[in-house]
Structure formats: C-alpha cells, structure tokens
C-alpha cells in the first residue's frame, strides 16, 4: 500500500524491473491522490526496484527506492512525503514501513502462537509449583545422619582390646603368659 503525503503531486508506483531488460517495467499502483491510501497489492518476496513517478507526467521520476527487500508474511506501507532540507527547500522522500501479518487460521504458526501465548504461562507456573514441591519433599524427608564415633590417634576406639577378641574367637589365651608352645614370645 502507498500513502501519498505530498500535497503537490498525485503519485504512481512503478516497478522498473531489471536494469538489463528494457521492457519489464510494470505499473504496480495507479495514481494515488494527496491524503489517500492505495488499494492492497499482493507481491511475492523479492528484492525490488520501485520508482515513484508523477501520475500526470510519467517521465517525471520523483523518487527511486532501490534494492528494497520484501519479506514473506509482512505487510508494507510506503509513505511518499516531502522532506525539508537544511536550505529550506523540499525534496521527495519515501518511508517504507513493514509489519508482520497475522498468521492464517489453523496454520502451524497460528497454532504455535496460541499454544505459547495461551497455554505456556499456566504450564510454566505449574512446573514452578512442582519444582517447589520437590524441594519441600527433599527438605522434609532429609534425616540427620549420626556421626561416626570419635577416633583416637587416627584409629578406632574399641570396647575390648584385640587380644581379648582373638582369645574369644579361638578359645585360647594369647597373652604372653598363656601363649601356646612353639609360638614366639615378646622376649625371644
């Protein structure tokens, strides 16, 4: 769509096509008077060379918009307006404005928008609630473990000396006085 904001001229938008081909020029939008908006024109995504000409004098080129990229699923509004220079004179200028179009009903983009805007926030809040519940369960079921008894000199403290334990298991007294015959003693 083209909006004409220049009170001095009725504007027409022309696609000049390729610079290498002489006869591929085509009129896209017919004369748009001052303060009016053109009808909607459907165009495919492409890099375009648009030229704005005076509707009364088609050879009078008012502005060239070179290498302008049309993207998929966007709506373009081109505002044709005079712009004041530093010396006080006016020159024609074009301000292209693009906005994303609404996706078609039932299409994958529309369903994705609905899922992520309508249902994603409650889903995330539920996930946050479940995370807090899991942390609470972990805190409530955590039990304090008993510390291992005190160690003396890096060794375990036992209730009976090792000699008494061996004597109880073998049934013989292993102290020096009661050592079996043939076993070495501390004095040998």
Keyphrases for this structure?
188 residues; alpha+beta; 4-stranded antiparallel β-sheet; 3-stranded mixed β-sheet
Structure, described:
With 188 residues, the chain is α+β, with helices and mostly antiparallel strands. The chain has two helices and nine strands. A four-stranded antiparallel beta sheet has the order 3-2-4-5, with no helix packed on it. Strand 8 (151-152) and strand 9 (155-156) form a beta hairpin. The chain is rod-shaped and about 130 Å long. The model has no long low-confidence stretch (mean pLDDT 80).
In short:
By secondary structure, this protein is α+β, with helices and mostly antiparallel strands. The protein contains 2 helices and 9 strands; from the N terminus they run βββββββαββα.
Radius of gyration: 45 Å
Q: What is the number of helices?
A: 2
Number of strands: 9
Low-confidence stretches: none
List the strand order in the largest sheet: 3-2-4-5
Q: What structural class do helix, strand and pairing data support?
A: alpha+beta
Order of helices and strands: EEEEEEEHEEH
Q: Biggest β-sheet, characterized? A: 4 strands, antiparallel
Q: Report strand %.
A: 25-35%
Q: Estimate the helix proportion, in percent.
A: 10-25%
């Amino acid at each position: 769509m083209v909006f004409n904001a220049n009170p001095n001229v009725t504007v027409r938008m022309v696609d000049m096509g390729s610079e290498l081909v002489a006869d591929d020029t085509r009129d896209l939008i017919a004369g748009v008077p001052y303060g009016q908006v053109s009808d909607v024109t459907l165009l495919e995504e492409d890099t375009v060379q648009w030229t704005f000409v005076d509707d009364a004098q088609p050879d009078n080129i008012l502005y060239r918009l070179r290498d302008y990229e049309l993207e998929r699923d966007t709506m373009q509004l081109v505002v044709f307006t005079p712009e004041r220079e530093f010396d006080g004179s006016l020159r024609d200028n074009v301000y292209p404005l693009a906005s994303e179009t609404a996706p078609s009903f039932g299409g994958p983009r529309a369903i994705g928008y609905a899922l992520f805007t309508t249902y994603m926030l409650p889903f995330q809040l539920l996930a946050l609630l479940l995370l807090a519940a899991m942390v609470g369960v972990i805190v409530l079921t955590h039990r304090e473990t008993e510390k291992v008894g005190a160690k003396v000199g890096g060794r375990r403290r036992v209730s009976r000396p090792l000699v008494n334990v061996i004597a109880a298991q073998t049934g013989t007294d292993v102290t020096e006085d009661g050592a079996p015959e043939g076993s070495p003693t501390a004095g040998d």
